[in-house]
Amino acid sequence: MPDQTVARFEQVVVPHMDAAYNLARWLTRNDHDAEDLVQEAYLRAFKFFGSFHGTNARSWLLTIVRNTCYTWFRENRPQELTTSFDENIHSTEADPFDPEKLLMQSESSQLLKQALEDLPLEFREVLILRELEGLSYKDIAVIAGIPAGTVMSRLARARSRLKQCLTKLVNKER
Amino acid sequence: MTCTDIQAAIHGYIDGELDAVRNLEIEQHLQHCAVCSQAYEAEQTLQRTIKTGSHYYSAPTGLRKRIQSSIRQVGKSEPIFPVMPWHRLAVAASVAFVVILAWALIPSLHGVDAEQLVAQEVVSNHVRSLMVDHVADVMSTDQHTVKPWFNGKLDFSPPVKNLAKEGFPLVGGRLDYLENRAVAALVYQRQNHFINLFIWPSSRDSNVNTKALVRQGYHLFHWSKAGMMYWVISDLNETALQEFVRFVQASP
């Protein structure tokens, strides 16, 4: 009976809308696209709700949000999926990351946001899922569609890239 | 472990994803190695800065409303589960029928079978609880949250059990109205089926054995025990609902 399905969906999936929006917003870096994609993801989720038998509705929903975003990237911004980060250009071995230096900046929060946005998609998504959503490696592996064993190394690389970006930004500010 | 191993595993350590043995190894290493412990602190600072920097985007209110209304729209036009087209009509007709019947029979109410009237009310309450998207006032799977919630709202304390282990998790509780009085409604769930369990003090002293009824495709069971009336209703099949009744009746 459809009323029951809607009621159950509203009870189980709708409460995770902030998580859905946060992920889509960080992936697209744009309010308008994020809203459209979250709405599309929710309609998809509702359509496939019959096949959801798990207990972790948030991860299930985020998987759908992420897939919806990637489909959109393929159609609208394919370059973001292929752009590889040039290790040499961004290498700042001579200038190691100093967190204190970052924190002394009054705009540290703005700089961090900028650095996160500059990260390639595959690094940005694992960082958002881990640091802002607080998800376990197991859940991140499912959502990002990567083997559980590679989550830690991808996070390590993501954090190292983030530090490089930050160092560059901090040095530019001074 | 070498420093290279430690710095590779430090991410799992920070994220609390390592087992106890490796955690201990890293802890001990950090106490003695200045290079690694500096790297560890830098990672921690970075993590803390991300987490506390208000970088979380919450869903805008407008989006929330748009999504909810579009889902309700889709839910109406494309039901996921096969639905009988006469269903809504039947509900409306039965409600109208009850109203007319009650109006016609009020002068000689005791002439009507009281059980039939309660059954009709129970069906209406069950349908209404699912229709208006208001299954429960207090949503909790914890009986120790749901039971005290009724304090001060009812003049009796309904027995509340969580039957999750038995396959019927408690969804929550709600106030409802039956037989001209406020009653406790406990909501349970099995897969996509909701079960309403209505409880109120019985006006009759004697225990009444379990009786099964079918109304408009819903299965109903009712009994009274220790001065309380119990009515159970669901669209669940009869066998499964009977199983639920047995769990409710079992002594705690």
Summarize the SSE layout with pairings.
The complex is a heterodimer of chains A (174) and B (252).
Chain A: H1 2-12, H2 17-28, H3 31-47, H4 57-76, H5 78-82, H6 87-90, H7 99-104, H8 108-118, H9 121-132, H10 137-144, H11 151-173
Chain B: H1 3-14, H2 20-32, H3 34-52, H4 61-77, H5 87-105, H6 114-131, E1 138-139, H7 143-149, E2 170-178, E3 181-190, E4 193-201, E5 208-215, E6 218-225, E7 228-234, H8 238-249
Antiparallel strand pairs in B: 1-2, 2-3, 3-4, 4-7, 5-6, 6-7
Distance between the termini of chain A: 63 Å
- Give the biggest sheet of chain B: 7 strands, antiparallel
Specify Rg of chain B, calculated over alpha carbons.
Answer: 27 Å
Spatial separation of the terminal alpha carbons of chain B: 53 Å
Report the sheet with the most strands of chain A, covering strand number, pairing sense and barrel closure. none
What's the gyration radius of chain A in Å? 18 Å
Short summary:
The complex is a heterodimer of chains A (about 170) and B (about 250). With about 170 residues, chain A is mainly alpha-helical. Chain A has helices at about 1-10, 15-30, 30-45, 55-75, 80, 85-90, 100-105, 110-120, 120-130, 135-145, 150-174.
Task: Describe what you observe in this structure.
The complex is a heterodimer of chains A (174) and B (252). With 174 residues, chain A is mainly α. In chain A, 74% of the residues lie in helices and 0% in strands. Chain A has eleven helices and no strands. About 3% of the residues of chain A have low confidence. Helix content of chain B is 46%, strand content 21%. A seven-stranded antiparallel beta sheet of chain B has the order 1-2-3-4-7-6-5, sandwiched between helices. In chain B, a hairpin with a 2-residue loop joins strand 6 and strand 7. In chain B, helix 1 packs parallel to helix 3, helix 2 crosses helix 3 and helix 5 packs antiparallel against helix 6. The longest helix of chain B has 19 residues. Chain B starts with a helix and ends with a helix. In chain B, 29% of the residues are buried. Chains A and B meet through helix 1, helix 2, helix 3, helix 7 and helix 8 of A and helix 1, helix 3 and helix 4 of B.
